[in-house]
Amino acid sequence: MRYYFMNQDMKEFALDVEIHPGKVMEFTVDGAKTKLLIKNLAGKNFYSFDGVAWKKLAALGVNEVLVSNSEVYKVFRGFKPSGLNKGGAGALITQMPGKVVKLMKKEGDKVTKGETVLILEAMKMENEIKSGADGTIKAINVKEGQALEAGFLMVEIDDGTN
Hints:
Blueprint (H helix, E strand, L loop, with lengths): L1 E6 L4 E9 L3 E6 L2 E10 L2 E5 L6 E6 L4 E4 L2 E7 L13 E3 L4 E6 L6 E2 L4 E7 L2 E6 L4 E6 L6 E2 L4 E6 L4
Antiparallel strand pairs: 1-2, 1-8, 2-3, 3-4, 4-5, 5-6, 6-7, 7-8, 9-16, 10-12, 10-15, 11-14, 12-13, 14-16
C-alpha cells in the first residue's frame, strides 16, 4: 500500500509499505528498502530497525495523524496530499467505502466528460463512476475486486490543465 506523509512544513513524501508475518514491515522510500520491526507491549507500539534499540511509536487516529520523534505527520492512504482540494474534474476519488466491480478503461485511453470509467459497488448498489473532464487516463490506482476506503484516488485523468 502506498502512503503519503505531509509534515507541518507541508513537505510530503511517499512510502510504499509491505507487512510481512511476524510483525515485520518493509517500506520503500526513493527506491531504498528498509525493514522495520514492530512490537506491542502493554498497549503501546514500539519500533526498531535492528531489533536491539526500540523506540516508542505514538499514533493518534492512525489513518490521519502520526506522531513520532517530535514530528507530526498527516497520513494519506493511496492519494497524494498535494492533490487535495485541487484534484478537480481529473481526479476520481471515492466518496464512501466500496469495491471495484469493473474497470471500463485502461491507462492511456481517451475519455470524454460523463463517460463511465469504472463501476464501484457501494451500499449494495453498483455505481457508474464517470469522468468529470475530457482527457487521457494518466493513472488507474485500483484493480477489479479491490476494496476501497473513502477518499481513495481511483483514477487520475490528465485534462490538460496540470
